[in-house]
Amino acid sequence: MSEPNQPLSTPPMSPEEIEAAAAANEADLTAQLEQLGSELKAAQAALTESQDQALRALADAQNARRRADDDIAKIRKFAVEGFAESLLPVLDSLHSALAVENATAEQLREGSEATLRQVISALNKHQVAEVNPAAGDKFDPALHQAISMVPGTGQPANTVVSVLQRGYQIADRVLRPALVTVAQG
Fold first, then answer.
1. Could you count the other beta carbons within 10 Å of the beta carbon of residue 178?
2. Which family does it belong to (predicted)?
3. How far from 107 is each of 7, 66, 87, 116, 118, CA to CA, in Å?
4. Which end of the chain is flanked by fewer CB atoms within 10 Å, N or C?
5. End-to-end alpha-carbon separation of the chain, Å?
6. Secondary structure E strands in the chain
């Protein structure tokens, strides 16, 4: 009887069996090698495809950035075009006024008023609004610039007494604040 921890012995293999086992091992190794080779080719093809896609994506991004830069440059270059076009009728009016040699004061005033209306229309078309507070309006440092404080006006403190120069804003951005005098109170 054999002891329980003793390994079982295998009978020795014949040379034919050894040769057959070696051939089977070689066939298995060859099959595994062919499978690994095909997997390697597939991985290389996937890598090449991924690299190609990455290069195309990079080129697309660079082209988009270049087009955006070109568009921004064109916008900056021609941003004033619409505003300039709206001022051309004003220029025409001024040239016409200067062409009249013997204009009366009334004609000059009428022409000036018409030209002023054209300027205001052109400014309004481009969202340029006048900042012209009335006397008694509350002083707003975001829209007004106080030139002086006037005591004894009878108005509440920090209210506009008079406007020395109108201000202007485009959309919500102040181009020039209105110059005002303010009640000291």
1. 23
2. Belongs to the GrpE family.
3. 128, 55, 22, 14, 16
4. N
5. 124
6. 128-131, 144-150, 160-165, 167-170, 173-176, 178-183
Residue 4: how many other CB atoms lie within 10 Å? 5
Tens of pLDDT, residues 1-56: 455 566 667 778 888 888 888 888 888 899 899 999 999 999 999 999 999 999 99
Q: Do the Cβ atoms of 120 and 168 come closer than 8 Å?
A: no
| Alpha helices, H only, 79-177 | 81-99, 105-125
The fold adopted by the segment(s) 128-185 is: Nucleotide Exchange Factor Grpe; Chain A, domain 2 (2.30.22)
Q: Is 41 left (phi over 0), alpha (psi -120 to 50) or beta?
A: alpha
Residue 148 has pLDDT above 90, yes or no: yes
Orientation angle between helical segments 81-99 and 105-125, nearest 10 degrees: 180
Residue ranges per structural domain of the chain: 128-185
